[in-house]
Amino acid sequence: MSQVAAITTAVEPAESPLTPESWGKLGMWIFLAADAMSFGALLAGYGALRYGSTDWPVPAGVLGIGLTAFMTFLLICSSVTMVFALAAIQRGDLRGLRTFLLLTILGGLMFLGMQAYEWSHLIHRGLTLSSNPFGARLFGTTFFIITGFHGAHVTGGVIYLSCYLVRALLGRVTQANANAIEIAALYWHFVDLVWILVFTFVYLL
User: Fold this and answer.
1) In this structure, how many other beta carbons lie within 10 angstroms of the beta carbon of residue 77?
2) Whole-angstrom Cα distance, residue 194 to residue 41?
3) How far apart are CA 184 and CA 173, in angstroms?
4) 88, 126, 155, 160: which has the highest count of C-beta atoms within 10 A?
5) The CATH number of the domain where 189 resides is what?
6) For residue 165, how many other CB atoms are within 10 A of its CB?
7) CA–CA separation, 161 vs 163, rounded Å?
């Protein structure tokens, strides 16, 4: 009888090691992989257009490198506060989660405000999607598309984190929900990493 039970157990399908939490992480990783290809295609297109152009302007002569460097520093700091937010909820510190989520959101909002200032300044100088007084017209096109695409991701991240901040303020986030905060942190770190690449390829090189 014991042999029959052993054989029955052996042929039964094993339970999936994936839990609802790990499914969430897997879904986020798949989304980020697809999104990385989108940004990669945009940066590759930018590189190809720049390589084939004879009058492509030097970015440092047109764009505000100092301002953008500070924007980059802000996003890096917001990644650090996001790490602290995750660590706080993992140890059950709801107050710490609220504080560091708020700081992360403020960092994102400050980044968006500075990007809006940069855009308005450049548009005032004549750089638009269809015009560029400094050289190749496609410089403005690629600049606004790439930075705008990233800005949309930052906006989405701010809204994403704000939803969790509201839930935390209402006491609806507990240590058991740490996995959800970890998934949100994955998205935010991705957005920050992509900006470092954008800053390097579009502003510095």
Assistant:
1) 15
2) 13
3) 13
4) 88
5) 1.20.120.80
6) 19
7) 5
